[in-house]
Amino acid sequence: MVKIISAKWILPSTEERPFKHGFLVIDRDKIIDLGSKEEILPKYPNSEVIDLGNKIIFPGLVNAHTHVPMSIFRGIAEDLPLMVWLKEYIFPIEAKLREEWVYWGTKLSLIEMIKSGIAIFCDMYLFEKEVIRAVEESGLKALVGEGIFDFPSPSYGPLERGFELTEELLKNFEKHPQIKIAVSPHTLYTCSPETVKRCIKLSEKYNAKLHIHLCETKEEIEEVKKRYGKRPVEILKELGGINENLIAVHCVKLNFEEIELMAKLSAKIVHCPESNLKLGSGIAPLTEMLRAGIKVGLGTDGPASNNDLDIFSEMRTASLIQKGIKEDPTVIKSEDVLKMATFWGAEILGFSESGKLLPGYKADLAVLDLSHYSLQPDYNPLALLVYSAKNGFVSDLMIEGKWIMRDYKILTINEEEVIEKVKKIKKEILSLLF
Amino acid sequence: MVKIISAKWILPSTEERPFKHGFLVIDRDKIIDLGSKEEILPKYPNSEVIDLGNKIIFPGLVNAHTHVPMSIFRGIAEDLPLMVWLKEYIFPIEAKLREEWVYWGTKLSLIEMIKSGIAIFCDMYLFEKEVIRAVEESGLKALVGEGIFDFPSPSYGPLERGFELTEELLKNFEKHPQIKIAVSPHTLYTCSPETVKRCIKLSEKYNAKLHIHLCETKEEIEEVKKRYGKRPVEILKELGGINENLIAVHCVKLNFEEIELMAKLSAKIVHCPESNLKLGSGIAPLTEMLRAGIKVGLGTDGPASNNDLDIFSEMRTASLIQKGIKEDPTVIKSEDVLKMATFWGAEILGFSESGKLLPGYKADLAVLDLSHYSLQPDYNPLALLVYSAKNGFVSDLMIEGKWIMRDYKILTINEEEVIEKVKKIKKEILSLLF
Prior knowledge:
The first copy, chain A, contains 15 helices and 20 strands. The first copy, chain A, has about 425 residues and is of the alpha/beta class.
């Protein structure tokens, strides 16, 4: 038995025109048809038809890089140099990190992502088994990986155990519908070339994604050059890590040759514009990356350095910054950033059946409520999504045919319980930190 | 009889520490006291005490530059060069502008501004009497001015009538508590130096603000130099227009000497970071303006080129962009942008009794709801306001001691009626435009 949903607008993908009064047919986890009322209703008699009314149905968004458990640190330290922020606040408290904090911090972030229309995300942090547990309960989909670095990890301990844990996850989740595992070396300044090489081998063995922070700051490049006499991209290339499975995050400081190289080798990039600005890293050469033909996703980065998990806001910021620095409002368009936040993001994370509302794709969709005062009038549904919508304007979220949020009510998470738990965790953190 | 309100946090101004469990005493339109429960309650027995609970009370925000009626054009044309946007879409439809559209467009914007915690704003547009009518009904405060330019206006007709209308408004609203009138020459490329000179004289006669778009784009500077052989600031200086009553909007293309001059002559600047990015104008030298000692306000600019009226978002963007382009997260701090959006903004618009929650100031305040999922945890109320709060997270707004919004319900505007009217206006606009 199929489900049919309709609304004032359906945005099937950024390559199709917005469909006015469209009807979308869903069979279990997949979209099987899309058309007008006259085309659809006679073909599927006796089906459940849900008319969402004055809304826009669009592909569920993709947050292609974050550290979800860090929501418990949101606002703990602000307007500081990155190294002071890390060394005086984040590292001391992460040294005492508890599995329970990771679980509830993830839940808090899942609430915010669901309310922002995010269906799929990519995470790198510590105690990722707790992240996985929360994601499985929530109904969202994720590519996750335990952060690997040479110094002992607050979660798994010595490096060797990090590889064992990652391989254990790779095996356990090899055919999981909801969870995929990435091999996640942290950076080229926290992992030696030998460690990164082992990560690359492991990702090749399982045909898994290699998820790494790359060329985020000028300090990173200087540090890596000082140690090895080469820029990070050159090292990664020599190790064989630049290929279609690479998810290189940030890439603020890529030069022209490096952009060309990444394009030629089909590597993927995740752009986190707000985090790059807020931490003072700079502005990534997004226009140049797109012109070179690189598939770029959008990420919020961790909520402690953003300070939210709102992909609408990242789409808007990504577009606005490029227009501003190029002094050209045509240089990047709403459809470009929406593509980054939907099917490019999904493909980059290995969920290539998601990100479009077309027959054959997964029924991963979000619903924007056009009755909102700041979404008036509705000349242009695409512009409303990219330039006016915000965290909290999404009324419904469906993933693989199942409602995760319905009429603003999250069905898979008890919001009040999460907020109460996070209040307790805040007190524990403060008592340990000060 | 006084009113006492309290909440988990009160932010009296950016120069005081956030006050935990503070109590604010309001007598009619003014704040008369602020202190702890023990200090306040015995001093004012038998008073009404409202405990707002888990919230932050902060000074009502100031949107120091916008064109509120343009909400009816939101999204009508996107990602276009400024001149195409203006000449093919905005000017043709403005030529047919109706007073009724201005009134309802203003109402729509007022809803959004109230929900964003804005108490005071500054407007320049056409048919400003309709803007004034809507503002008076809403309870907000505004500095408004009819846009003056050499070519015939769709509202008042020939230039001469613009001066008459402005003078009539200046007289009628000279002692109005809620409405102030600015003399508003549009720009130095739409007004001749003679017209600007007359505007300056008129503003001097009434000790009124002079509100002008200045150095927004490189094209503006080129055009003005072509016509007069000088840069806009030089012309304005020679005309005697650079002084403490000047509100110069945008100033994206100010050079070092011009920044020094504006500082020396106590001129005020309004920074509209998102509009400047979105229209491809560039990034204003905010850090340099602040270092030079200029008082700078924050504006959204019109909702058709932003596409919202959210000052939280402008604070965040203003801070993030400076950190990003300077590659220094300490270059501008949360308190700097909050000051711009509160008491500096208020002072720039001539409402210098607003913008702080201290005894002697007007009771203009907004309330941020900390129960929101994306405002967890609350280590730092200032960071939550600037980096995490958004349009829609404000539960209450009070202006001069009167509640304008209470527990998310706007008391002075019928939201549904406005949205219905704007839907009709959209149809009228489309029928005239295409």
